[in-house]
Every structure is written in structure tokens, then in C-alpha cells.
Amino acid sequence: MTAEEVKRSNHDLEQFAYIASHDLQEPLRAVGGYVKLLQHRFPQKMDANALEYIQGATEGVDRRSRLISDLLAFSRVGARGGNFQPASLEGILNEALHNLQASLRSTPAKIIREPLPTLAVDATQIMQLFQNLIGNALKFRSERPLEIRIGARLEPGRWVISIRDNGIGIEPQYFERIFQIFQRLHTRKHYPGTGIGLAICKKIIERHDGAIWVESTPGQGSTFHFALPATAPQPTPDHEHSHATTR
Ligand code: ADP
């Protein structure tokens, strides 16, 4: 296969994933709806076993629909990305924090912010990136009161934005693996999730010609860094993806 053919087949696969996940949502919603109807319409006819089965089915449907909506978000990064426009990362971060309001109410966190630059980005995607990274800091917190620091530094040709938490941390052998789709270090019972969040972050950053990586000390906390070009880049057309960049 030539490089051109590989690109095209990646593009086709991306479109397929997008359409398949989109189309799977509908039947799943229907199944979920009927199961809930059963529960609400015939409560007196249900014995404990029946109710338990219904609960099992409902949980299964909910889990799959979370998975599908995450998969949809993943395939959307390439298949449905927007244009790059100069945007204040401050404003984007404010919006991400606003969307995390409910989680921040149940998990109070001290958020320490440095000024952030204005860069040419797909604002919706960078907001999702902030949301995923800060959402993870909330989820993987330790016993200590949670503190999240968001900082930015200018390096030659690029801005590096860092999100540091004082949570459970990550063992060094997993630093690369966690950015792959479906890779998680915990069971669903301990921490809910689908293992797609960081894969979405990586895809977003690759589309921006940037890099994303993590530093962490287990038991002390993690810092996720992402770098974005300081000069205005053009979005990589979705059939011309750049190579994997972890640093
Ligand atoms: P999910 O959160 O659904 O598990 P992600 O792709 O967002 O999926 O993260 C993958 C894994 O990386 C997580 O399951 C967790 O083990 C680890 N991880 C991500 N962010 C953090 C963090 N801030 N602190 C500790 N571990 C993290």
C-alpha cells in the first residue's frame, strides 16, 4: 500500500466509525426505552428477579450508550473537525470549567490559573481537551484536598500548557499506553470510564500539529502537558493525518 492509500483507508475507517457509532445510538435508545417502560408500566407484576434483570439491562444499555457517545466523539475529531481561528485559551478554559460545574460541586477543587495565550485553534476541540484533562483530575483524585494548577510557558515555536493535579498519579510504564483508545489502568468498579478520553485528547492535539504527554509520580500527582504551535497552523485535512506525536 502506498502512503496515499493508507491515508485514504484511514479516512474511510474514520468515516465508517463515525456513521456506525451514530447509527448504533438509535436502536440502543429504543431498547433502553422499552426496558424502562416495562419497569414503569408493570411494577406490580414484577418480582424481585424481574426487577433485577431490568436493572441489569438498564445498566448495560447505559454503559453501551456512554461507550458509543465517546466513540462518536473520538471519530468526530477527524471526521467533523472545525476551522482554526484565533481564540483566547482563557475563554476556552472558562467554558470548560463551566461545563464541569456539576462535577466541581460534588468534588470541590482549588484551581490555580496562570494567564493563557490566544492561539489559532479549533476552540470546540480545545475545550473538550481541557474538559477531559480536568475531568480526569477530578476523577483520579487522592485523599488530599484536590488542587489543580493550569499553567502556560512559551518555548521556541510553541506554547506548552500544563494541567497538574495532586491525585493518585500514574506508574511510568503506562505513560504512553494511557493515550491509546480503550486503555485504562483501573476496573470500572473503582473508576467509571471508557478509556477513550485521552485518545480523543491525543487525536485533537495531532490535528493541531502539537504534542501531548504526561509526567507523574505515583501517589503524588500527574501533570498533563500539551504543546500547540505558537504560529497559526492550518488544520490537517482529515485524510492527511500527521504522525503520532507523544512529545
Ligand atoms: P477513562 O478516564 O475513561 O478511564 P482516559 O483515556 O481519560 O479514560 O484515561 C485513561 C487512563 O489514564 C485512566 O483510566 C487512568 O488510569 C489514567 N489517568 C488519566 N488521567 C489521570 C490522572 N489525572 N491521574 C491519574 N490517572 C489518570
Give the helices and strands, then pairings.
Layout (H helix, E strand, L loop, with lengths): L2 H39 L6 H32 L5 E4 H11 L1 H6 L2 E5 L4 E4 L1 H17 L6 E10 L2 E8 L31 H11 L3 E7 L3 E9 L18
Parallel strand pairs: 2-4
Antiparallel strand pairs: 1-3, 4-5, 5-7, 6-7
Bound molecules: adenosine-5'-diphosphate.
The site of adenosine-5'-diphosphate (ADP) has 21 residues, from helix 5 and helix 6.
Explained architecture:
The chain is an alpha+beta fold and 247 residues long. It is 47% helix and 19% strand. The chain has helices at 3-41, 48-79, 89-99, 101-106, 123-139, 197-207; strands at residues 85-88, 109-113, 118-121, 146-155, 158-165, 211-217, 221-229. A five-stranded mixed sheet has the order 2-4-5-7-6. It has a two-stranded antiparallel ribbon with strand order 1-3. The structure holds adenosine-5'-diphosphate.
